[in-house]
Design brief:
The chain contains 6 helices and 5 strands; from the N terminus they run βαβαβαβαβαα. By secondary structure, it is an alpha/beta fold. Strands 3-2-1-4-5 form a 5-stranded parallel sheet, sandwiched between helices. Helix 2 runs antiparallel to helix 6. It is globular, with a radius of gyration of 15 Å.
Length: about 160
């Protein structure tokens, strides 16, 4: 039987503890989970691609069956390339659902063999988003509760705060 592979794609700018929680829980459902940074050269990121990949590798180093990669283009094309059977998405609140549902339907239309799997965020992480963490950090606020240490270190460095 082939390995059941899920792709968890995002910008991970930076990866949060909420992202990591989803990865850990997904490992109980799939043989392999690939954290893949969706790279869009037209989009401005706080952390460059190589830094995000290095942070992802560092924070997942002890998680067996978790790999780190990146892609450009359509996520479903990437999923076909790596043999993924599922796209992993997290839902923090009802407001996430409409957007995620629309994307999930489009992905289903383009790649019917790749399922979209939604996992609910832990209640303590419902309000945590990378954009919110960047905003807090940019104003000198403490973000260690929301980020793994490697992500906090690199974010503060990129913001000139560390």
């Amino acid at each position: 039987m082939p390995a059941r592979i899920a792709v968890y794609a995002g910008s991970f700018d930076p990866i949060t503890n909420g992202h990591l929680d989803l990865v850990k829980r997904a490992r109980s459902l799939f043989d392999r989970v690939i954290l893949s940074v969706g790279y869009n050269p037209a989009k401005r990121s706080t952390l460059d691609l190589q830094t995000r990949l290095a942070v992802l590798r560092e924070v997942t180093a002890d998680l067996e069956g978790v790999e780190v990669d990146h892609f450009e283009g359509l996520l479903v094309d990437y999923c076909r390339k790596v043999g993924a059977v599922a796209i992993l998405r997290g839902l923090r609140a009802v407001t996430d659902f409409e957007f995620e549902f629309q994307i999930g339907l489009a992905n289903m239309d383009m790649a019917p063999a790749v399922q979209t799997v939604f996992l609910l965020s832990e209640p303590r992480n419902i309000f945590v988003a990378s954009s919110l963490v960047r905003e807090i950090a940019s104003h000198g606020g403490a973000v260690s509760r929301y980020l793994p240490p490697a992500a906090e270190r690199e974010l503060l460095k990129a913001l000139g705060k560390g």
